[in-house]
Amino acid sequence: MDLPGKNGHSQTDEVTGAPASNLEWSELVSRAVGDLSRIIKAEVRLLELGLAGVVQAEMARLITAMVLGSLAICAGICLLAALVLFLHQWLMWWGSFGVTGGIVLLLVATLWVVLPRFNPPAEF
Length: 124
Hints:
2 helices, mainly alpha, rod-shaped
């Protein structure tokens, strides 16, 4: 039984024969799903853009830290060599290396105890 609609046409789908109200709901659901899909895609793009800036900044910071760390290691090696050569004026080679190694170990132990106080672990 066809219900009279606008302009004398029935309120059924001409292809499936389903009532028009069912078609309206299916169209609304498909539009809602399409809108939700577009919103999610837009949010993902925004997240990618936001993360890209953060990742680039962190990479620049990491590269800077690596370069400075490498330079500090080179400088430390030069200073240790200078200390060994300086001590060799009064001691034999093994004594110079022994004193230098002891000083470095004492420095490392001191930093091991002192540095964690200034840089507490991150809490999640």
